Amino acid sequence: MGEAPNSQQKQKIVTGDGGYVLQDVPHLSDYISNLPTYPNPVQDNPSYSVVKQYFVDEDDTVAQKIVVHKNSPRGIHFRRAGPRQRVYFEPEDVHACIVTCGGLCPGLNTVIREIVCGLHYMYGVKRVMGIDGGYRGFYSKNIIPLTPKVVNDIHKRGGTILGTSRGGHVTKKIVDSIQDRDINQVYIIGGDGTQRGAAVIFEEIRRRGLNVSVAGIPKTIDNDIPVIDKSFGFDSAVEEAQRAISAAHVEATSFENGIGLVKLMGRDSGFIAMYATLASRDVDCCLIPESPFYLEGRGGLFEYIEHRLKENGHMVIVIAEGAAQELVSESLRCTGKQDPSGNKLLQDVGLWISERIKEHFSKQKKMLINLKYIDPTYMIRAIPSNASDNVYCTLLAQSAVHGAMAGYTGFTVGPVNGRHAYIPFNGITETQNKVVITDRMWARLLSSTNQPSFLRTRDIIKAHKEEEPPTQLSDDSITDDNLMEKQVLC
């Protein structure tokens, strides 16, 4: 294998035989020469005494794509996460800090706890501190000393003991604070915006030639971070969403022509709404940002609601917060305002669509409906993580600790096809994970709810052209006639 030339390039690419491409992560030795190394303390840790193989092989990588043909190129790989035989920090010299940024998410406290305990119990690191209040806390807030005793029970609570904030990212001040406090390991927990900030912080640290490792732990309740299998907190969010859907179902079935409407999180990606719908089996219609829909006319949402009420006498609708924003903005003549993180401020689509449904059936005078609107958004964000996410957060935190101790920097950690890997920041910040509406999972949802797709011919053709690989259904088979035939409610 040979490293691609030009050390100034943003990506560290290694190529090999058979189309092998390693998107490697930076290392402290890339820009600091003659760094000493030390034996990894893990090999003397009693907890690891029964482990047959302490360390991950330096050449171990994880394939991004595992479904291939016999003649396919080997494709993109990432460096496998785990403890290395040599480390670049002596435990007594480590001064680590942890910061949480962006919105709340189940599992934040678990990640904090496991970073602290991983550094302490696996590597013997005693100096760990928390940054109070997100990125701003580096230069405007007090620090919080973190020890295993301090973090012992925090995984049982929702939120983050460190506090969080959006925006306020002044790179020079942050790196000045890191330098002034002699911090040499920085653990940053946050979503894509936070990881973009982490990438800028890393670049400034590298420009100054500082012996500081920057490790990211990706966090988003929406599961919209690409490359990794899923983000922590997602399983907990889907599980908690069931409570709201169950309540909506009870309300809907208790009244004549009852409609239970639930708004779930999902700014740009409808994963929570989709998986909660599939898990519930009580949902009649799921609406997400990736799948456009229209209200009036043949094949529209109003027609489907009327049909389902006549058929079943009740209905449950789940809508993601980012769905139909173009319809809401047009209706309310809203301007595109942004929050401190640069995200477009969303209108309350749940409240808007509930009013439109009531207005429609009131005007038609065909049917008296009873609609109940439930918005559990912040209740879901604030819960502690469930058992599945607690285990996942432990693996994420320990993988980040192993990477930082091994001298890797400018990386985020996450599972790729079931194996934890180190991913360069640009790998998760340049695109966004979205529900693919030409994929079988969305087809499973449509089959489960028996709802129409609400897509017009041009929408389906566009979706087929944008997605790769294409579905087995040929675009040639889609015509205006057979599309209408599929949309007719039977």
From TrEMBL:
**Entry superkingdom:** Eukaryota
Pathway in which the depicted protein is active:
Carbohydrate degradation; glycolysis; D-glyceraldehyde 3-phosphate and glycerone phosphate from D-glucose: step 3/4
Q: What InterPro entries does this protein's entry cite? A: ATP_PFK (IPR022953), PFKA (IPR050929), Phosphofructokinase_dom (IPR000023), PKF_sf (IPR035966), PyroP-dep_PFK_TP0108 (IPR012004)
Q: Which GO terms describe its biological process?
A: fructose 6-phosphate metabolic process
Which amino acid positions bind Mg(2+), per UniProt? Answer: 192
Task: Provide the binding site for substrate.
Answer: 220-222, 265-267, 321, 378-381
Q: Provide a GO CC annotation, any one.
A: cytosol
Q: How is its activity regulated?
A: Allosterically activated by AMP.
The UniProt subunit note reads as follows: Homotetramer.
Annotated function: Catalyzes the phosphorylation of D-fructose 6-phosphate to fructose 1,6-bisphosphate by ATP, the first committing step of glycolysis.
Q: What is this protein called?
A: ATP-dependent 6-phosphofructokinase
Q: Which organism is it from?
A: Nicotiana tabacum
